[in-house]
Write a structure and sequence with these properties.
The chain contains nine helices and two strands, in the order H-H-H-H-H-H-H-H-H-E-E. The protein has helices at residues 2-18, 27-30, 46-55, 59-73, 77-89, 93-106, 111-123, 127-141, 146-161, and strands at residues 173-179, 182-187. It has a two-stranded antiparallel ribbon with strand order 1-2. Strand 1 (173-179) and strand 2 (182-187) form a beta hairpin. The radius of gyration is 32 Å and the shape is flat.
């Protein structure tokens, strides 16, 4: 029994020692491994990467690329507008609006940022402000961009359709108790 124990411990020790190798024989230490990334090479602009990812529908990855661009270039109007656009596509309207407004503060003549801010405001149901923002974008663009023209047209249409109509909300309703904890909402004549 004692011999079996000694044999087991010896085999276990040899197995553990066999796993320990000479660090100087490591491929990285001897230079056998090749670098995958060229340290002297140029990195691709994060804005370009982000724009390509947006085209591919990868909005979360695009947002990360835009943040990487911000770390390289700083928070420029282009970067802030791109971050706002990615947040808009992700449905983060508050963050999108904040980024786009910051982009406009840095560059008041940036028509794309104005347009995207208008889209955010339309999504929020603020058609009046969206219309004013689209008008600003349209003026800055000179009416050259068909999508911008279409956005302005939609904002005007939504504003006209959103007018308060008295006859729509003039209906009177009455809450009637039917017994046993049941209630019914009835329209009064």
């Amino acid at each position: 029994m004692r011999a079996a124990k000694v044999s087991f411990i010896t085999i276990l020790t040899l197995t553990l020692v066999a796993g320990c190798g000479d660090p100087m024989r490591d491929p990285l230490a001897t230079g056998e491994a090749r670098a995958v990334i060229d340290p002297a090479g140029q990195s691709v602009d994060g804005l370009i990467v982000g724009h390509r990812l947006m085209e591919a529908g990868e909005y979360e990855l695009a947002l990360r690329a835009y943040y990487r661009a911000a770390s390289d270039q700083g928070m420029t109007a282009d970067v802030l507008s791109a971050i706002g656009s990615a947040n808009l596509r992700l449905g983060r309207l508050g963050q999108a609006e904040q980024g786009l407004r910051q982009a406009i503060e840095l560059d008041e003549r940036f028509a794309a940022a104005w347009n995207n801010l208008g889209v955010v405001l339309m999504e929020r149901g603020d058609f009046g402000q969206a219309r004013r923002v689209f008008e600003t974008a349209f003026a800055l663009d000179g009416g050259k961009s068909p999508p911008l023209r279409e956005n302005l047209r939609l904002a005007i249409q939504m504003m006209e359709n959103n007018v308060y109509h008295e006859d729509i909300n003039n209906d009177a309703f009455e809450l009637v108790r039917r017994g046993g904890g049941r209630y019914e909402l009835l329209q009064t004549p």
